[in-house]
Amino acid sequence: MDIKNVCVIGAGAMGLGIAQLAATHGYTVNLVDITEEILEKAKASIDKNLDRFFVAKSKLSNEEAKNILNRIHLSTNRDEAIKDVQIVIEAVFEDMALKQDLLFDLDKKCKKNIILASNTSSLSITDMAKKATNQERIVGIHFFNPAPVMKLIELIKGKNTSDEILESSKKFALSLNKTVVTVNDSPGFITTRLIYVLCNEAINMKQEGIASTEDIDTAVKLAFNFPMGPLELSDLVGNDIYLHIGEYLTEKLGENYNPSPLLKKMVNDNLIGRKTKRGFYNY
Ligand SMILES: NC(=O)c1ccc[n+]([C@@H]2O[C@H](COP(=O)([O-])OP(=O)(O)OC[C@H]3O[C@@H](n4cnc5c(N)ncnc54)[C@H](O)[C@@H]3O)[C@@H](O)[C@H]2O)c1
Q1: Which residues line ligand 1 (CB under 6 A)?
Q2: Cβ-based burial of 105 (10 A; exposed 0-12, middle 13-18, buried ≥19)
Q3: 283 pLDDT exceeds 90?
Q4: How far away, in angstroms, is 119 Cα from ligand 1 center?
Q5: How far is the CA of 237 from the centre of ligand 1 (A)?
Q6: Going by DSSP bridges, is the β-strand pair 152-157/87-90 parallel, antiparallel, or unpaired?
Q7: Of all atoms in ligand 1, which is nearest to the CA of residue 17?
Q8: Best residue for ligand 1 mutational test, from 8, 79, 93 (most atoms within 8 Å of Cβ)
Q9: Atom 32 in ligand 1: which residue has the minimum CA distance?
Q10: Closest residue (by CA) to atom 28 of ligand 1?
């Protein structure tokens, strides 16, 4: 099946980026969220991002940016927005029950050959598909933030995802000019599991007092040629998000993934990072 029209559900940080990316590559996008206000804010962000990162850098003309924006249609009516699309990508909050219910509803309402994809960064695709009847069409398509810029897409094959759906999803991901890796469903996949371990261990080191925040970050950046240190990254993503991931990985994979006591304390003290302007650094 040829994909021409895409529905993205959730117009937060990821959803708006995915919508922009898909529209940039010629797809028509229906972008769905709960309120008009969230949607208008998302479209304004896309407009700004296109301008700042593409038009200002001469990667797109004004005309092209305008056409991309015009290919994105906003809707608070999910049932309308899924009509005539060939793929639905959900990017709602990282909550298993919410995603399960959403996929159950989409599976009921979308034609059988439509791909249902989740942008989850850690949750099991197999579990997420549990309530749906046609579990073979549910797949993980994990984009990275910001979606229009980051080069990787992690494709996740749930236990029941069909080879055909995986192949069509891969073709779609490649059409967005991304490099694609495929992972069998496993908590945190490749990327989230590894980055969590790195950040959590850096937080353990900080707790043990073996080096300062700045020195831990500088060591990782310069020794491994990473663009960012693990503590500044944890502040950027949100210490609450890493705690959540750590708890999930511990539940699914065992005690090796136990979140650092310092990470728990920081979240408890509302030292979330950039979001609260205080974390390992002050902002
Ligand atoms: N932020 C990241 O760096 C990142 C990277 C990769 C993957 N992810 C994953 O992407 C997903 C979204 O993350 P985010 O950071 O964009 O979250 P976010 O909080 O910025 O946005 C989520 C959006 O979903 C909307 N929403 C919630 N329930 C909805 C519903 N029933 N119908 C329509 N819209 C609904 C919310 O109103 C909100 O606008 C999560 O699963 C997350 O794990 C996030």
Answers
A1: 9-15, 32-34, 38, 91-94, 102, 119-121, 143-145
A2: middle
A3: yes
A4: 8
A5: 13
A6: unpaired
A7: 16
A8: 93
A9: 33
A10: 92
Give one word for 270, left, alpha or beta, with left for phi > 0 and alpha for psi -120 to 50: left
Arithmetic mean of pLDDT, 5-16: 97
Report the alpha-carbon distance of residue 42 to residue 32 in Å, rounded.
10
Q: Please give the distance, rounded to the nearest whole angstrom, from the Cα atom of residue 102 to the centre of ligand 1.
A: 13
Domains assigned to the chain: 5-184 (3.40.50.720), 191-275 (1.10.1040.10)
Which tokens sit at 219?
């060591």
Task: Compute the mean pLDDT over every residue in the chain, rounded to the nearest whole number.
Answer: 97
Q: What is the mean pLDDT of residues 164-168?
A: 98
Q: Return d(Cα 25, Cα 163) in angstroms, integer.
A: 24
| Banded model confidence at residue 230, pLDDT cuts 50, 70, 90 | very high
Residue of the nearest CA to atom 38 in ligand 1? Answer: 12
* Band of pLDDT at residue 1, cut at 50, 70 and 90: confident
